[in-house]
Each structure stands twice: as C-alpha cells, then as structure tokens.
C-alpha cells in the first residue's frame, strides 16, 4: 500500500493559540481515513493546512511524494485534490449543473489558443457539461440539474457538493463533516456512496466527522486528535474501546 498523503510533525499557531502541535498522519491510497476529536481538537486546521488555506509554523505535508507546502491552493485541483466544506460552499443563484461544472474548471486545459480561437474551449465545455450530467446521474439527482440551488433540500445540496468535488476526478477527496445535518437515511446513503467511491473508483478519502457510528462504519483508519495533538489512531475495531478516546469525548460512547 502507498502513502498518498503524509502530514509530518505539523505545527500551526494562531497568535498565542497552538492549534496543531507536532501532528502526524498518513492516508494510504485507496483508503477511507477519518480525522476525529472533540471540538477545538484541530481537525479543521489540519484540513485547512492541507488545502493551503493555513500556513504551518513547521512540519511537512506531502501528497503523492510532492511537497504540498510549495504549492498554492489554486494548484490543488490540478494535482488531484478536491474538498467539500462544513458549510456548503455552493453558489445559491446558479443552477445545480452550473455549480457542478465549476468543479472542473480548475482542471480545464483550455488556454490562450482556445480563448482566442474558441473551438477547443467549446469542445471542452461540451465535455464538461456531459461529465457534469453524468455526475448528477451518479448521485441520482438528474432531475434538479436546471434548478437553482436555493431552496433545494439539504441532503440534495450535499450530493451537489460531492458531485462538484468529483467532477474534477480527484485522487484524494477531503470531506469536512459530510454527515453533518443529514437525516438517518441520508447518512446511510452517504456511507454507501463513499464506499462505492473507494471501491469502484479507487478514490482515497480523508474525512473530518463527529458522527461516530458513521465514522466507525466506513473508515479503514481513524486518527484522533485532542488539544491539537495526536491522541490515538488505528482501525475502528482497535479504537472502539480506547480509554483515551472515551476520555477525550468525556464518556460519550463511540
Ligand atoms: N483563525 C483562527 N484564529 C485563531 N484561533 C483559531 C483559528 N482557527 C482555529 N483556531 C483555534 O485553533 C484550535 C483548533 O480549532 P479547529 O477549528 O481546527 O478545531 P476542530 O477540531 O476543527 O473543532 P470543531 O470540531 O469544533 O470544528 C481551537 O482552539 C480554535 O479556537
């Protein structure tokens, strides 16, 4: 198995607050890895560091052997990294289809020649539209393709966000609280979708999630942080009865 994403000895400070303190974690290619921990543990900071939205004080982040800290946030889609956000980051006034198409633009290859002569861009646009429709079919929401996002049910919008992240064909998908705000039924369906992405499409997933039953049900590897530090990591079976984890969650069953 190959390590696709490696965080090593990562420290992030915001003024006097140390949000991450020498955190290390490895995500193996083709696995679902979950990052868990109580509020304020540093999960979002870790995500934002990988996404190049936050600059660490020290440590390294490597993706497919490359030093990610030498790349800009805008390069990530081209490298094969996509993410979703805790609060849906969709354009409310645009249609579902347009929102999904936006996810591919970062990887579009149309350059100077196409902007001058037009033809390859037009072909690329047709391809992109076809791919976006295919993604909506995959997520079983083709009927809302031409609806504006405003007013659609939350579970549908979550699928739109996933479709947008996947239309760029990422190798690694970062999901920030994907189960947050979903109904029981939607959470079950989301679990099935993520397992299919891993098993049928070979996509590696790293998710931040508070929904323990969901995490333990789908993850291959779980990394727990507490107060910005590595607390414990292992398979769901290894962690289920971890006293450290139970203590960090103040006795909440995991
Ligand atoms: N931009 C910022 N400025 C100052 N402090 C910050 C900033 N972002 C995060 N922090 C602090 O860093 C620590 C880690 O926060 P972070 O949001 O990464 O935790 P989390 O595990 O994602 O929490 P939650 O589960 O509540 O989302 C917290 O003490 C938080 O207050």
Automatic annotation (TrEMBL):
Pfam assignment, any one: ABC_tran
Listed name of the protein: ABC transporter ATP-binding protein
Domain of life: Bacteria
GO cellular component, one term: plasma membrane
Species the sequence originates in: Amycolatopsis bartoniae
Record-linked InterPro entries: AAA+_ATPase, ABC_AA/LPS_Transport, ABC_transporter-like_ATP-bd, P-loop_NTPase
Keywords associated with the record: ATP-binding, Nucleotide-binding, Transport
Recorded GO MF terms: ATP binding; ATP hydrolysis activity
Domain ABC transporter: start-end pairs: 5-252
């Amino acid at each position: 198995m190959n390590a696709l994403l490696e965080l090593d000895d990562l420290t992030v400070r915001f003024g006097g607050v140390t949000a991450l303190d020498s955190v290390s974690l490895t995500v193996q290619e083709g696995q679902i890895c979950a990052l868990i921990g109580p509020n304020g543990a540093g999960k979002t900071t870790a995500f934002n560091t990988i996404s190049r939205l936050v600059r660490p004080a020290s440590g390294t982040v490597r993706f497919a052997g490359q030093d990610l800290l030498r790349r800009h946030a805008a390069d990530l889609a081209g490298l094969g990294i996509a993410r979703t956000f805790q609060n849906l980051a969709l354009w409310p006034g645009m249609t579902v289809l347009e929102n999904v198409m936006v996810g591919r633009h970062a990887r579009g290859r149309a350059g100077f020649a196409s902007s001058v002569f037009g033809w390859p861009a037009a072909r690329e646009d047709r391809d992109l539209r076809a791919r976006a429709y295919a993604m909506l079919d995959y997520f079983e929401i083709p009927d809302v393709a031409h609806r504006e996002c405003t007013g659609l049910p939350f579970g549908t919008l979550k699928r739109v966000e996933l479709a947008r992240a996947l239309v760029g064909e990422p190798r690694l998908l970062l999901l920030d609280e994907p189960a947050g705000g979903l109904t029981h039924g939607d959470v079950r369906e989301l679990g099935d979708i993520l397992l299919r992405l891993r098993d049928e499409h070979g996509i590696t997933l790293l998710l931040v999630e508070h929904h323990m039953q969901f995490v333990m049900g789908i993850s291959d590897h779980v990394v727990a942080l507490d107060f910005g530090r590595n607390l414990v990591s292992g398979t769901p079976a290894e962690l289920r009865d971890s006293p450290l984890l139970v203590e960090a969650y103040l006795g909440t069953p995991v």
